[in-house]
Amino acid sequence: MRLGDFLVTRTVELVVHTDDLNRAAGLDVPLDRQALAACTRLLADTLADRAPGGSVEVRVPPFAVVQCIGGPRHTRGAPPNVVETDPLTWVRLATGRTRWAHALEEALVGASGERADLGPLLPLMG
User: Fold this and answer.
1) N or C: which terminus of the chain carries fewer CB neighbours within 10 A?
2) pLDDT tens for each residue of 44-102
3) What is the CB neighbour count within 10 angstroms for residue 41?
4) CB 37 within 8 Å of CB 63
5) Would you give the end-to-end CA distance of the chain in angstroms?
């Protein structure tokens, strides 16, 4: 593993564990913006690697957007299958801290289109 890749994995741990501690202890330790960005991008890229394709666009503004899941590929205009959420919710979904169904129920994630169900693919890491 290259040093740069290793440092990104440690950044993911930093973000995830800071969020875990904040939630468990009722704290509000701020997350470093660059660390949250790196974590968000790595987890979005992991999803795209595990579910290759171009039928669903996953948006995590302002840090990441990936296309994934096999099927008809979107090439222009508004994509028919879109998932969108904020970075911290994405980190929680990807690491198993929040379940897909709960995020939908609480309107923490928007999912439109018949292929926009990421539930079977999550969590990416536990």
Assistant:
1) N
2) 999 999 999 999 999 999 999 999 999 877 667 777 899 999 999 999 999 999 999 99
3) 17
4) yes
5) 21
Distance CA 105, CA 16 (A): 22
**Is the full-model pTM beyond 0.90?**
yes
* 3-state secondary structure at position 42: helix
C-alpha–C-alpha distance, residues 60 and 83, integer Å: 8
Largest CA distance in the chain: 45
Task: List Cβ neighbours of 14 (8 Å cut-off, separation of 6 or more).
Answer: 32, 35
65: amino acid identity, one letter: V
Is 99 in contact with 23 (CB distance < 8 Å)? no
Question: Judging by beta carbons within 10 Å of its beta carbon (0-12, 13-18, 19+), is residue 68 exposed, middle or buried?
Answer: buried
- H helices present in 1-126, as ranges: 3-25, 33-50, 87-94, 100-105
